[in-house]
Design a protein that fits this description.
This protein has one domain (2-116, 176-215): Rossmann fold. The protein is 48% helix and 16% strand. It has eight helices and eight strands. A five-stranded parallel beta sheet has the order 2-3-1-4-8, with helices on both faces. Bound molecules: adenosine monophosphate. Residues 9, 31-32, 35, 52-53, 56-59, 64, 85-88, 92, 162, 171 line the site of adenosine monophosphate.
C-alpha cells in the first residue's frame, strides 16, 4: 500500500511516519530527508537543490521528482510506503502517479493532517531534531528530558537550517499556495481523507489508523 501524508510543515508528518512504522511497518520516504542527504553528499542534484532549500523555496520539480522516484525504488518490493513531503505540487503528483502506475502499485490513500498555521509556526520555531534517529522535539511543547540530547539514543539535537523565522514564513506561504490544488487533485480521485493534527501524537495516530484501515493497514 502506498500512502501520502499531506499537511503544513510542523503538522507532524515525520512524527506520525515513525509511529506508523512501529505500529504497521510502513516505511517512510520523506522528501526533506532525501534532499538533505543529497545536499550533504554534495551530489550534482544536491548542489543544485541547496540554494532553494536554504532559502525555504521549493526545489524545482525536475530535481525533486528524479530523487524521490529513485528513493521509492530503493524500498523493497511488497513493503508499504508512506510518502512525507512529496508530492508538494500537482506536477509532482502526476509524475508520481505515472511512475507508480508503471510499477503496478498506485497511491491508495492520501491523508491530510489539518493544523492551523499559527500552531504550525509555533511548532517549527522551537523544533529540534536528533542528528542520528531524526526524532523531533520542541523546546517549549515537547522538550527532551536532558536539554539538547535525544531521549532515544543520546545524540545531540540540532535546529534545521531552514527553521528560522523568515524561511518558516516563506515555507508556510508556499504550502498554502500549493496545497489546495493538491488536495483537489486527490479528492477528485476519491482517495483523500483528513485528520485533525492538533492532539498528542498518539491520539493523531489513532485517527490515522482509523482512516487507513479500509485501505488494508492492520492496526
Ligand atoms: P521538509 O523537510 O519537508 O520541510 O522540506 C524541507 C525543504 O526541502 C523544503 O522547504 C523545500 O526546500 C524542500 N522540499 C522538500 N520536499 C519538496 C518537494 N516535494 N518539492 C520541492 N521542494 C521540496
Amino acid at each position: 500500500m502506498n500512502i501520502i501524508l499531506l499537511g503544513p510543515q510542523g503538522s507532524g508528518k515525520g512524527t506520525q511516519a515513525s509511529l506508523l512504522n512501529a505500529r504497521i511497518g510502513v516505511v517512510q520516504v520523506a522528501s526533506g530527508d532525501v534532499l538533505r542527504a543529497a545536499i550533504q553528499s554534495a551530489t550534482p542534484l544536491g548542489i543544485e537543490a541547496k540554494t532553494y532549500y536554504d532559502a525555504g523555496d521549493l526545489v524545482p520539480d525536475a530535481i525533486v521528482i528524479g530523487l524521490l522516484i529513485e528513493a521509492i525504488d530503493q524500498v523493497p518490493d511488497g513493503t508499504d510506503v508512506l510518502l512525507d513531503g512529496f508530492p508538494r505540487t500537482v506536477a509532482q503528483a502526476q509524475a508520481l502517479d505515472a511512475a507508480l502506475a508503471e510499477r503496478g502499485s498506485p497511491v491508495e490513500k492520501v491523508v491530510e493532517l489539518r493544523l492551523p498555521l499559527s500552531v504550525a509556526k509555533e511548532r517549527l520555531s522551537g523544533r529540534l531534531v536528533c542528528r542520528t534517529c531524526g526524532a523531533v522535539y520542541n523546546e517549549r511543547t515537547r522538550p527532551p528530558t536532558v536539554a539538547g540530547v535525544c531521549d532515544i539514543d543520546g545524540s545531540p539535537l540540532y535546529q534545521r537550517a531552514d527553521d528560522y523565522p523568515e524561511a518558516i514564513e516563506k515555507r508556510l506561504r508556499i504550502w498554502e499556495r500549493e496545497n489546495d490544488a493538491l488536495v483537489a487533485y486527490y479528492e477528485s480521485k476519491g482517495i483523500l481523507e483528513s485528520v485533525d493534527a492538533q492532539g498528542a501524537p498518539e491520539i493523531v495516530m489513532t485517527h490515522l489508523l482509523a482512516v487507513l484501515a479500509p485501505a488494508g493497514a492492520s492496526a
